[in-house]
């Protein structure tokens, strides 16, 4: 006789809220009149993400295993879920921005029209938008929140697919440069399929070695069986699949092309939210399932952290496209985050976990703000993504240049910004665990990466603008809200980070 699993609806409330909103969005897409569909979809998606955020805050302090042991509700998971929901709501506001020109929405009017066809050129001036992006983004946010709470490998794989498939679709929905956008979507899909295959094969090997996909059973088996070759190989393949999602070198090859080709709001969404979700899953897998067998994964993480920092910092110097530069910045920051993963103690709790979670929050807010500024800067009828097009921006719009400079300085880790506080926290955690060589490499990589951030600031303030640009659009209410929140948070988390660090310290607990 099959017994129904115990379900705590209160513990599942954040997931129910966001997935419920996504399903409502699908129904709206099917039955609501097209002419008035956009504001309804925006409202439904925002209600879902904000509702999920409120639910995670109300659950603060909860610790339980629910859904038959498949999901964990704990401090670390709730902190990461709240971060994803908050960043997701800000990303949806960027999706909704149309005030610069209704015909210049980031998203295509009809994705089914062949790129470059007469009908496609005709629709460039249409004020309509492919509103499916909102339920797709809601499903992706729900998948990310499920990803960080999964307590067994099968649920984690399902969450991986739920968050990935919508991203593959919306990456190809750019209104302009559609061929580049569709190429990015295809690359993301193909390489993502390989990453999913690695994860699934690793799952099969771990199940073969332990007889279970539940994290607690895997931990017990790893203690009993020691150096089982199937278990070690399975762990390696699982980590490869997760490192792909986190944009960690050498599994980063999709990142520059997808960041460049996807609509800028989608790039911001991936850079902020997907990073949090991927590292949340990495932390839970390594420290709940394999935390007692550090020898099996610690050298691997140590090595890829160094590779990611070097690749991101060095190759970022050679980029002339701002979106590709921020992509390599993301790769470098993935390496910095892995120093925090190394800095966690054997139990997976304490200052290292808190530092990593704080860094994810700070990085998400900062990079989201940087991409929000990027949507405002234009040359002709397109975004100014080439570095030369940012020359003299400060003389055209001192305020926008100052906000962008703030975000770039935060990404560089300059003191009195959120980026400095986050880097200091993860580097200190690594040093406390004896990984000072890794922290030293991270410091050197930070110094190298600071150059390409400062290069943009020098262009904005000390170069003369070209005759044809750049021009700065007046942001609408959605983008204004995003910039106000991200800029304020970047400064506040740099000057007075104590309260948020305390919350992260209190939440730095995994149950399994």
TrEMBL record:
Membrane topology annotation: Multi-pass membrane protein
Subunit structure, interactors included: NDH-1 is composed of 14 different subunits. Subunits NuoA, H, J, K, L, M, N constitute the membrane sector of the complex.
Similarity annotation: Belongs to the complex I subunit 2 family.
Pfam family membership, one: Proton_antipo_M
Sequence ranges assigned to domain NADH:quinone oxidoreductase/Mrp antiporter transmembrane in this UniProt record: 150-446
Record GO biological process: ATP synthesis coupled electron transport
GO-annotated molecular function: NADH dehydrogenase (quinone) (non-electrogenic) activity; NADH dehydrogenase (ubiquinone) activity; quinone binding
Main subcellular location: membrane
Keywords: Cell membrane, Membrane, NAD, Quinone, Translocase, Transmembrane, Transmembrane helix, Transport
UniProt source species: Blastococcus mobilis
Name under which the protein is recorded: NADH-quinone oxidoreductase subunit N
InterPro entries: NADH-Q_OxRdtase_suN/2, ND/Mrp_TM
Reactions listed under catalytic activity: a quinone + NADH + 5 H(+)(in) = a quinol + NAD(+) + 4 H(+)(out)
Any single GO CC term annotated in Swiss-Prot or TrEMBL for this entry: plasma membrane
Cell location: Cell membrane; Endomembrane system; Membrane
Protein encoded by which gene: nuoN
EC number: 7.1.1.-
Residues annotated as transmembrane: 7-28, 40-59, 71-96, 153-174, 186-209, 229-254, 266-287, 299-318, 325-346, 358-377, 398-418, 438-462, 474-496
Role description: NDH-1 shuttles electrons from NADH, via FMN and iron-sulfur (Fe-S) centers, to quinones in the respiratory chain. The immediate electron acceptor for the enzyme in this species is believed to be a menaquinone. Couples the redox reaction to proton translocation (for every two electrons transferred, four hydrogen ions are translocated across the cytoplasmic membrane), and thus conserves the redox energy in a proton gradient.
